[in-house]
Amino acid sequence: IKGITRHIQSYWKQHGKSEKLLISFHGLPKRSLQEGDPYFCMCHKTTRLLTQALNLGPESYDMVFQSRLGPFPWLGPYTEDTIVKLAKSGHKKLDVVAPGFSVDCLETVDEIAREYQELFQEHGGESLRYIPAMNASIEAVDCFKALILEHLSGQPRYID
User: What angle do helix axes 138-152 and 2-15 make, rounded to 10 degrees?
Assistant: First the structure.
């Protein structure tokens, strides 16, 4: 949480902050939740901790799910539907972050940075910016260093 928070703050310091932050997680079929998979709850916890650390009020962000495949229901709300709704309601600038990824993957970058930007503009929005994953940033190095040292100490924490 500390690492991604610093990373987002660094991005905003360099590029400015948009009207709203979409916190987008990779989707899973709804049946995974119904079968007991804790992923959905972990996404909510990550969103709560991240938005608290960023000091964002509920009007400043939305948690969404991307990358659906197949005809069955997936976890929601869907990123695409939220982007269209926000564009149609007058939002002009959105930032999107995918905190489930520590490094960028081509699918996510293309889906968010290209497809969602086009979708947002088609419905009246102007600028949808993808905040890249931490990748090789100093925040990532610090985060992984802390995790490694914690686990080497024999006292790993799983809270944040």
Answer: 170
